[in-house]
Amino acid sequence: MPKRNDIKSILVIGSGPIVIGQACEFDYSGTQACKALKEEGYKVILVNSNPATIMTDPDFSHRTYVEPLTPEILEKIIDKEKPDALLPTIGGQTALNLAMKLDELGVLKKYNVELIGASINSIDKAEKREKFKIAMEKIGLRVPKSIIVTNLDQGLKDISKIGFPAILRPSFTLGGTGGSISYSKDDFESLLKAALDSSPVSEVQIDESIVGWKEYELEVVRDSNDNVIIICSIENFDPMGVHTGDSITVAPAQTLTDKQYQELRDYSIDIIREIGVDTGGSNIQFGVNPDNGDVVVIEMNPRVSRSSALASKATGYPIAKIAAKLAVGYTLDELPNDITRHTPASFEPTLDYVVVKIPRFTFEKFPQTSPELGTQMKSVGEVMSIGSNFKEALGKALRSLEVDTCGFDDFSTDKNLTLDVLSSNNPRKLWFLGNAFRHGMSIDEIFDLTKIDRWFLNNIKEIMDTEDEIKKYDINPSNILNAKKNGISDKFLAHLKNCSEKEIREIRTKFKIEPTYKMVDTCAAEFEAYTPYLYSTYQDEDESNPENIEKIMILGGGPNRIGQGIEFDYCCVHASFALKEDGFQTIMVNCNPETVSTDYDTSDKLYFEPLTIEDTLSIINKEKPSGIIVHFGGQTPLKLAIDIESGGGKIIGTSPDSIDLAEDRERFNTLMKELSILQPDSRIAKSTEDAILKSKEIGFPIIVRPSYVLGGRAMEIVYSESDLERYLTEAVKASNDRPVLMDRFLNDAKEVDVDAISDGKRVVICGILEHIEEAGIHSGDSTMVLPPHSLTRKLIDEIKLKTKDIALKLKVKGFLNIQYAIKNEKLYIIEVNPRASRTVPFISKAIGVPLAKLSARIMAGKTLDELKVPDDFNIDHFCVKESVFPFIKFPNVDTILGPEMKSTGEVMGIDKDLKAAFAKAQIAAGNTLPNSGTAFISVKNDDKEKIVEVAKKLQLLDFDLVSTEGTHQYLKKNDINSSIVKKVKDGGNNILDLIKDDKIDLVINTTFSSNEILESFSIRRTSLVKQIPYFTTVAGAIAGVDAIEYLKNEEIKVKPLQDYF
After folding, report:
1. What's the pLDDT tens digit per position in 912-933?
2. Can you tell me whether residue 304 is helix, strand or coil?
3. What is the pTM assigned to this prediction?
4. What is the DSSP letter of 982?
5. Which string of DSSP letters, residue by residue, matches 5-30?
6. Which of 24, 140, 626, 1021 has its CA 20 to 30 A from that of 384?
7. In this structure, how many other beta carbons lie within 10 angstroms of the beta carbon of residue 1014?
């Protein structure tokens, strides 16, 4: 049937900030959906709080609301825009939950808004555990034996019906939030309480354990004519017990017999029909007993999911785009396949290759928590690779991860350690499988410990056999080709043969052993493909067809991780869009399946490949691009710059030498002295003794860090010599090759971020962002305001002048990001990054200018004058960037912020009023601000004077105050009443007891020394668990209390980005 004409406007709900369990795969899905609906002539109204996404670009919707995702805000937007329909299935669990809430509150009925894509009944049936169980039993399918509990007493009473171990699965949560495995009565009560607290409907399903069973997923699409197709089968490498988002996965499923696959296919079709998902994509998960083939249904997501993005990239089938078009009335047979153009979307994709996904973890950011996986998701990103066989795809995925690995290169000689890791769910288990074979363990022995299917283990054994062969014999054409077909990298071969990677590359070139490139075409080459979506392999025929035209290659950012996220993908995508518009052929290289950059129609050509020097140079040698952009993908491509240049690649924009000058501390210090720019007193230490000696020269506190880091990795503020010794023992070992940088910490300084664009002759300041928190908190974690609200005109002018001087001296051509600190009205430089920064998308949305497009055009040869770029971008509203953190996922982790980045995502508050913008940012970040109650205040001595006005304002806002002895006495001197409460260390009836008893509604707690930080840890952690807003800086507290005042006295207003400019 043709598209619906009774619908004119559609509200699309996005997924909000990047969090663990809901990452940028929903930017990819949302962007596809918005494009598809706009293409069909509908008015698209988008709501999403995340400024770092492509989908919140004003070009992709007619009305783009960067506003908090709450039912109250959504009702305001619905009232204003009067949409005919709401599409809730492409914004993850966030959008589904909001749609359910809007229905429950009567908002959809009140404004006559129709839900499309999935009905309330189907969402309810799939998401509510008891209803789903009944539905499955109705069609003859089994779910794990389970009970549903809605309170603690009921759970403690009924657990005997399930027994231990038991799996706890909260309803209506994302990424398994609150989920866990309970092994006994000892841990059950605390785990159940956490699970109930994490469910928005206080409902938890407790399942019998099927840990050790095999897990499969099927991606299913259905249309309004009841046509149902299977897009892709996905097999988990890890057995049940590890969240599917944290598991290595393989597509298509490798170990199912044809009969088993057909059974799961039939079950999936029965399930989507029974649940009643009328149109669109769904993800269905099964458990299969490896001993007897019994099947249970684990769950169904009645929406586009994380796995949908993977399945789309694995097959080339655009699930979100098709789902959006099905939601407005089309049927599968009416829609063309974009890649083949001649086959309809009702054709099921066929794969003649293997796809492997490996998750990316950042446990190193949270050393206080155990690196152990379970039913609650903990990965922050993922990589995907494509190969002709599993071994080739696995090897490519391993070297894509950017965790200093190039294969099975752990090489631990401790067999007991190997046995311990294999018996656990440690994310390093994959590497220890290699060690197990090196220790002489058999496939059956490893299977008994891990329950990883013997087929996968046999493939890994074949890789290890190839390793043995390489070690034994001289390199020759036969064994090097065999190594490449088994996914072994040049770097790993170099390690085995004790030579350089370059030497291995030269040997391969001499033997003419080069990769060929195959197309992903959805149909196993049965039909011609028109979209060049390519992967490398070692076969005969090459399908890349390079053209002799002007082309620019853009290197992406690789896997998402803390410190390098979606913001860099945003820049890469904009570069591709701009250069395509300017007539260049654009070539994207990336390995991240969650992103818009790896969509098949973002660039003219897509190479889904690891971002290593081996894989990148192979593509460069094949395509011979006119220019290569390494500045938009964060540190990942920058690390390759010098090797690319020496390998013959032409890097455009800022030169690798200028990048190195900014990174090399000694060269940079010299440049700053030439420009008469102040820097905090600093030293470089190459040993522990050297560091101790130099610390006496600059004095404490000191910021210490390893050289060449991203996301503030291993950065710390040390307050004493003993702190410094601990840091050099536990975190970083200083050496000649890896020196440690030491900077005098500017206590109580204000920090500022500046983004600029230079064409080599002229420099334009894009935005000056003032940090709310004092210096010492990583800029990626800091709350920021644009334009600056408290800096003097003199300081702003000085910042602009110094930024221009640095850009011209560094010969920057493109983006430049500089971080300054201001202390006693003096300007100090912290660091310079001559590349795209993570604040580019935020500033672009704030000022209404696509900055990454401008920068890409300048790198390709245009000037600022040609592009008619003004000297300044002035705005008459305020934008606040607030960060979002994953602390709740990691037990025992402190929530205090410092120079090492910890946030996974960000939100934006935008308004004419600064207090309103800050309030919006807080709400969007999930920080529910109270409008009355009891506030706890305990601050360090340096902050006591500054906290007085905050305390006075809280009293005027009807808050009662509770404070520790020292703060109480200071407030009393200033005629402010507060009740005294004991510190945690002082015994019973202390502040922690008040927080646990729900007697505190707001926490303000600042600390100075490492001892103070340690002593107050439990206050911050308990506040987090109890969802009490807390501020660990006075500046943050001031902004927070101003926001409370605004929310109490004013009403939040909503406005689309298009109306700000």
Report:
1. 999 999 999 999 999 889 999 9
2. coil
3. 0.93
4. B
5. SS--EEEEE---S-BTTB-THHHHHH
6. 626
7. 12
